[in-house]
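Field log, afternoon session.

UNIT: design team B
ACTIVITY: writing a sequence onto a fixed backbone
BACKBONE:
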């Protein structure tokens, strides 16, 4: 089962939940993999303490124009949906940061003036983590905007996706990298906090998973602050609240020390295993409906 842990915004405790769920299931003997898809700011390794045994660079093929063959016809620029290649005054220029590596310009060039060269986007790193969890993360190069290819490659890396339970720590938000993380997931666990900001972003996240056709449940983190808006929304939208983690200064202090929630408070091991049971139940109910 592939469970994507997501949230409409950063700082809701998404990684805390992903790591604690992985550790709790691993502790009970379940084969678990955890992939940190938050490639712009990966931090699940802090709680899972992996040993990185494998490393791989993720490249994207981008066009390179041979000026001796190019006649400036502009057909490459016409076909590019991303304005990543332009033909101006007899010169053809490529903007690598805008290129999505689709290869269309290479295909249409009548002069065969374009070849494709690799451009490094980031790296994948993986290996065994605490409790025997199979762990991997993507790390996007600084300033690199193309997160999607790194996430897509991470999800196929080293057969981790074949573990009994795969937990994906998604990037925050609802943009393309989040969509790529959620793609193919069996269940989306949406972490939020009970505030107007949390509610706003939860609405967007629920809308996204519905468009993608992924069953979802909510975890309310820092329960006790804010108001009842998230509860009301979940009730009206028919999204189950699967777990609540109270606002507790001791939890915040443990996380700040780099301790996972279940390491600092072992009573949460059973709570996260119950959470998994509720996820499976909700998933089955959705499949049967
Ligand atoms: S399609 Fe080929 S020949 Fe025409 S401008 Fe582009 S690179 Fe040059
Ligand atoms: S590979 Fe695709 S995105 Fe990149 S410049 Fe060519 S047409 Fe544009």
């Amino acid at each position: 089962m592939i469970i994507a842990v997501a949230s409409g915004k950063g700082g809701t405790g998404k990684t805390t939940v992903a790591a604690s769920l992985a550790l709790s299931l691993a502790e009970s003997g379940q084969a678990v993999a955890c992939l940190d898809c938050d490639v712009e700011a990966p931090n699940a390794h802090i709680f899972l303490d992996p040993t990185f045994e494998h490393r791989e660079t993720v490249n994207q093929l981008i066009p390179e124009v041979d000026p001796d063959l190019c006649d400036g016809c502009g057909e490459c620029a016409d076909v590019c949906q991303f304005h990543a290649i332009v033909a101006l005054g007899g010169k053809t220029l490529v903007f690598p940061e805008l290129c999505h590596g689709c290869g269309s310009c290479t295909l249409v060039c009548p002069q065969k003036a374009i070849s494709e060269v690799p451009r490094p986007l980031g790296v994948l790193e993986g290996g065994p983590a605490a409790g025997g969890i199979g762990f991997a993360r993507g790390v996007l190069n600084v300033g690199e905007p193309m997160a999607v290819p790194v996430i897509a490659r991470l999800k196929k890396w080293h057969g981790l996706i074949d573990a009994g339970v795969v937990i994906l720590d998604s990037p925050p938000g609802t943009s393309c990298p989040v969509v790529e993380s959620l793609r193919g997931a069996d269940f989306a666990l949406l972490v939020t906090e009970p505030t107007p900001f949390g509610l706003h972003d939860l609405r967007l996240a629920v809308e996204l998973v519905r468009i993608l056709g992924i069953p979802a449940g909510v975890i309310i983190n820092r329960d006790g602050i804010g108001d009842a808006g998230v509860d009301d929304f979940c009730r009206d939208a028919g999204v189950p609240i699967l777990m609540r983690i109270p606002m507790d200064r001791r939890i915040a202090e443990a996380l700040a020390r780099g301790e996972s929630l279940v390491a600092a408070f072992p009573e949460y091991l059973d709570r996260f295993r119950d959470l998994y049971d509720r996820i499976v139940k909700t998933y089955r109910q959705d499949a049967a409906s």
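LOG NOTE: The chain has a mean pLDDT of 93.
NEXT ACTIVITY: expression trials, pending approval
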